[in-house]
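Schema walk-through. Below, the input block comes first and the output block second. Nothing else is stored per chain. Lengths vary across the set, and this one has 281 residues.
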Amino acid sequence: MKSLFICPDCGGTLESEGNSYFCKNRHCFDIAKQGYVNLLKSNRSSLKHHGDDKMMVKARRDFLEKGFYSELKDRLCDDIAHLAEKSSVLVDAGCGEGYYTRAAAEALRNKNALSAAGGVDISKDAVAYASKAGGGIQYAVAGVYNMPLKDESADIVLNIFAPNAFDEFKRILKPGGLLSVAYPLENHLMELKQAVYDKAYKNDSVPSVPDGFDFITIREIKQVLHIESNEDIVNLFKMTPYYYKTGADDQKKLEFLTRLDISIEVGIMHCKKDSEKFYNN
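--- output ---
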């Protein structure tokens, strides 16, 4: 079976042989029991662990599976299915545990507009869970700033609460390809931050349309979650970067909190890779 991904050493096509992928130069990458392949060149880094750890992945999985972010997921999938113009290769850059990847792939599949789907994340723990959850999606452990994908090989790139590697997204997208970016608006999770910090800061301004892309549309989702479980409140906190930047004393402020109304404010920006060169050829 041919992989959606390419060899990170030579850029060659990967094909499966037994429990491994090989390129034409016989570089070998084992397929994990969950089905994913690790294409991150860890031996070039001093870090032993990359990306989200097991606790963060489990917290996010448990929180999302209860449907708290279903409004975001549904609106994102509606937009992608509507904007897809043909049978598409979908890539989720920073896929995490695959919650949005599976949903987007299913939305395109229901429209007969999916030819292949893949997810990339630097966290092996996240990718292992995503791959185990199935959905007919190929997953690889890799960074979004250097994805093991051919130039102009994707029709749709998702970037959901993940690093904005816009130059890399432009590289792998075909001319006219769709980029969909989800990002927090200024008051996203404000009440959660107020419960933890003495002074809660608003989020940074929204990203601008990256160079090389044409703006299509922006959708804003604003709702209030009524969370009535300490477990869910803590899981929401643990799935954010705030948890790892917060001292033990502030973390304890959530220990006995059993109810919290939290603002969910997210923007979704859709844009297309500039296709001027494509149309002029």
